[in-house]
Amino acid sequence: MNERKDVSHFLEQFNDLTPEEKTDLIKKIMPQFCHTVMENKDLRDKIMQEMMPFCMEMMNKNDFPMKEMMVKMMG
Fold this sequence. Notes:
Distance between the termini: 43 Å
Structural class: mainly alpha
Shape: globular
Number of strands: 0
Strand content: under 5%
């Protein structure tokens, strides 16, 4: 039987993946992640409050223009 591992175990395994494997996993898990977040308003609000400052900081550090990202996301 497959034992369920904790989140830190999952993150350790993720960090051990190659960049290509990480990209593939992200492409597969993001739709499920978004669905889970968007169906629960409390979770959505909490995640947005916690993640947006982190995301904005990363975008600023990497010279990642917000307008360009939004255009790509919206098609």
